[in-house]
Here is the input.
Amino acid sequence: KIKVMYNPPPPELINREQAKNLSEVPTFLYLGGDSYIKGFHVLLQVLNKLGKQGIKARFIFANKYNFQSLKMLKRLGEKYSNLDIQVQGRVKHGKLVELHRKTWSLLFTSIGEETYGYAIVEASILGTIPIASRVGAIPELLGDTIASKYLFSPSNYVELAGKIAEICHLSMDEIIYIGKTLRKDMLKKFSQSNIENRVIEVFRDLLK
Here is the structure.
């Protein structure tokens, strides 16, 4: 029998409640680099589909991308004027937090079994709505939160494109409301008292 106890996020993240300064253009942040396991190829399919549909949105790519990947992203940006594709590359954590301020949603497209998903936790606490694949621990992290409706089947780019389009049709007030509710849910899940109680519960079970 296994009981799961989460590693608490760092105090500076828990204590940080930054006000969102959302871009008027729906903005999505992707942190996976061009890794196949992180689903970069899935996101390329999504961009092509959204471009054809005329969805207006901005996509910020952080982390490492090789020459071929950069070429594909540039080609998509030139092909579809409705898509604003920006590549930031590797960024320091402070810069990443600033990117979250204007970001509507985090794109987490992994096709591998994620054991934790720190990027999901960080985004949620910063009020950024994760659109995430149902892999590993991700459904456990988000399944009982307001963001559960934005989970999608791994590698299903059609479903992912639909979730992105759904976010694009929300107002900024709705995005901020969902983000604040999600932050509240995640802080409760990762509260020190909640984690302490789960530890005590384990030892009580051992003594029975």
Remarks:
- The CA atoms of residues 34 and 100 lie 20 Å apart.
- The first helix runs from residue 11 to 14.
- The longest strand covers residues 83-89.
- The mean pLDDT is 91.
